[in-house]
Amino acid sequence: MRIPPGGKTDALCETIITWELNGREFTTTGLDSDQTVAAIKATQKMLNLI
């Protein structure tokens, strides 16, 4: 997904990341108006799970 910088929108970006760790697969999601922040939130959730 690409969102042009400086856009005037209230849209939300959902990031879904599938992880595999020690043969176990799980998915985390992040939701934010900024796509980078959404990805960071999904990554933070993964780090809290391990």
Structural notes for this entry:
The protein is 30% helix and 36% strand. It starts with 12 loop residues before the first strand and ends with a helix. The longest helix is centred in the last third of the chain and has 15 residues, at 35-49. With 50 residues, it is α+β, with helices and mostly antiparallel strands. It has a two-stranded antiparallel sheet with strand order 1-2. It is built from one helix and two strands; from the N terminus they run E-E-H. It is elongated, with a radius of gyration of 13 Å. The model has no long low-confidence stretch (mean pLDDT 85). Strand 1 (13-21) and strand 2 form a beta hairpin.
Structure summary, number of beta strands = 2
Rounded Rg: 13 Å
Overall average pLDDT:
85
Query: How would a textbook summarize the main sheet?
Result: 2 strands, antiparallel
Which outline best applies? elongated
For this structure, the quaternary state is single chain
Ranges where pLDDT stays below 50 over 5 or more residues in a row are: none
Q: Helicity range of the residues?
A: 25-40%
Order of helices and strands: EEH
Tally the helices.
Answer: 1
What percentage of the residues does DSSP assign to strands (E)?
A: 35-45%
**Which structural class do you get from the secondary structure elements?**
alpha+beta
Biggest sheet: strands side by side, in what order? 1-2
- Alpha-carbon distance between the two ends: 28 Å
